[in-house]
Amino acid sequence: MHLLILEDDLDLGHSLQQALRAEQITSVWLRRLADLPANPDWLGVDAVLLDLGLPDGEGLDLLAQWRQRQIRLPVLVMTARSTLEDRLAGLGGGADDYIIKPFATAELVARLHAVLRRSARQADALWVLGPLSLDPGQHQAWLRGEPLNLSPREFQILLELAREPGQVRPKAELAQRLQPLGEPLTHSALEVHVSNLRQKIGAERIQTLRGIGYRLLPDAPP
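and the corresponding structure tokens:
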């Protein structure tokens, strides 16, 4: 999982990144709205941790702008504002969840996984896509109940494709999403990883659209 953290507090930002890193969650940390690119999708993040009180603006105003522009990144608001009115304003303003400071890392991570699960339209921690099953939290996958021995790259590719099964994911987008795991991924390296993944889950389950990208067909016949 790769996050965007918008938080102005230096101590909290540092400790949050360190705690999330221990959970194998990488992040980009920004302290001001002015540091944010016009389109947060360019950062290749899975979700956003958003503080409401930022030095140069309100987090809720930013969230409203994103939703008006159809930017659908999952957003978890983290704030010390704990009244019912504040929580309702956050959720009504387009937040996917709301957590009150101070919070335990374990609760934050659990809420993040729940937000991503809902974003992928999965009702359970175990994602089921035909004969494929994935557990994003444990980085494990199964085919017809048998565990798959996937490399970290292969699992991440499968997870990214599983977020929108049947939908085409452009190569450039996939390569960007995989960058937080290490060195920037070239298209040729991506093709090698996809080829290896096909050998493990069945070539027919990942369709190539030449010159565009890939899509997962979980119900493809063996």
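(Above: one complete record from the training split.) The mean pLDDT is 85.
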